[in-house]
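Input set for joint prediction.
Command: fold jointly, output tokens.
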Amino acid sequence: MRPYEHKAQYYETDQMKVVHHSNYIRWFEEARTSFMEQAGAPYGKMEQDGIIVPVRSVSCDYISMTRFEDTVEVYTYIESFNGIRMKCRYEIRDKKTKEIRVTGETSHCFLNEDYQLISLKKSFPEYFKVFKELEGKNNLYDEEGKQDE
Amino acid sequence: MRPYEHKAQYYETDQMKVVHHSNYIRWFEEARTSFMEQAGAPYGKMEQDGIIVPVRSVSCDYISMTRFEDTVEVYTYIESFNGIRMKCRYEIRDKKTKEIRVTGETSHCFLNEDYQLISLKKSFPEYFKVFKELEGKNNLYDEEGKQDE
Amino acid sequence: MRPYEHKAQYYETDQMKVVHHSNYIRWFEEARTSFMEQAGAPYGKMEQDGIIVPVRSVSCDYISMTRFEDTVEVYTYIESFNGIRMKCRYEIRDKKTKEIRVTGETSHCFLNEDYQLISLKKSFPEYFKVFKELEGKNNLYDEEGKQDE
Amino acid sequence: MRPYEHKAQYYETDQMKVVHHSNYIRWFEEARTSFMEQAGAPYGKMEQDGIIVPVRSVSCDYISMTRFEDTVEVYTYIESFNGIRMKCRYEIRDKKTKEIRVTGETSHCFLNEDYQLISLKKSFPEYFKVFKELEGKNNLYDEEGKQDE
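tokens >
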């Protein structure tokens, strides 16, 4: 799968003349939903099927700054998944220089439309399979992108 | 009624070192919902009652710039209302100097939960009354720029 | 030139389950800066050269709603330009159905770093030329809705 | 010091019908700048004095959901500060029920205008004193959950 690309917009900058730190949380979401779509489990479809995937926690380390008109690549990686909980990791790099901008994590659970915890394994085995197959696979990039860990 | 107050936040600035122009549209909404709440028709309650009030158009004139930590006052004024359509006007001024920052307008209609046009007069006479009484009353401030309560 | 593409993100939706109206103002900006970059006058470079291009006014008509994961195309068009003032028009359409979502306008002036009005014709003839050549050219799309490159 | 109050806005909700998780990061910033202002070190003044205080990391635990028109209180607390690094903790509670919504942390450093690390103790002893006196003082609220002024 390809990393998700985002070009930093003017409205995302602040008066420090760099991208405001809150936007990276949104870029994680952009990358995660793109990742899910590529994997065959688009989040919009999951919601239509009655599954809500809220964010339980987020953390973010700001390593270097992104400037207006820079394009970044967001690498998404499912660290762990058991059908009840999911943890994702992200790495945001400058597209041109590959310099690291930000790393982070989000953790998620799965709810039904009454906001009650569900197990994907029991309730939605097809979705369970999609995520389970991606778990722990750092297969986001080919050899020439050389971003193994 | 009191004007709505908003203090410009760091994340609302951009690298021009002023508040990004898109935020004023959001401040209009903040002021409009506060105005509706003060008037006895909180938007949250209207939605619970099955009324949706989307924005049909917006316009905004940027007259002077707002900087980080400035507090502005947003004056909201119902220009016209007939139960089917509503037009609101806004004036945003610096709280301290009363200098004009932005003026603008939004127009709205009223929908039911199936996104179909409704007439408040027929379907929700209590809400109709609230808005009708405020229509055209520019009673937000007296001559000296102070406002009645 | 190609229209600018934007995929509606989850964080751009509101509890009406559609894209919040304020985001279209941001999509105008995304499209305008992309347009300027394609035209050979990237806004980041203009700022480095000491030119600031603030928004003087914006207007927006909301015709139909955009939902999460929809991709829209934003067509940008310079309606008028004289080196002192510039007016841009936008048309946002669903990428798949070409249904109109939003139309709008922004007007701009040109400032130097001391926030004083400048004439691009006098101060930056190269930039003047770029915008002047695009003025009034509705060459974004041919009759069938397809666009030239 | 008083906790910072924020009323959840419509544009802060998403189609899950709750406040989008990225906004809490912005509310941390709102609370932190308000806290600094109350403490006598307004961030705007610090920037004017040539000090930049970027965010080095952020973490956030989402415990319960905030809905449109809910008012929350954000408690800010300086966990550690040595003039070079600062760590802040936040607790966001519903104003009415005092139910916890979100807890989180941010860590910061201090830069000069050339984006180089500085020590507040050496370069800005007055600011150093302000933050040092607040360090570790969990004096925001007494046992009953009410706060001193």
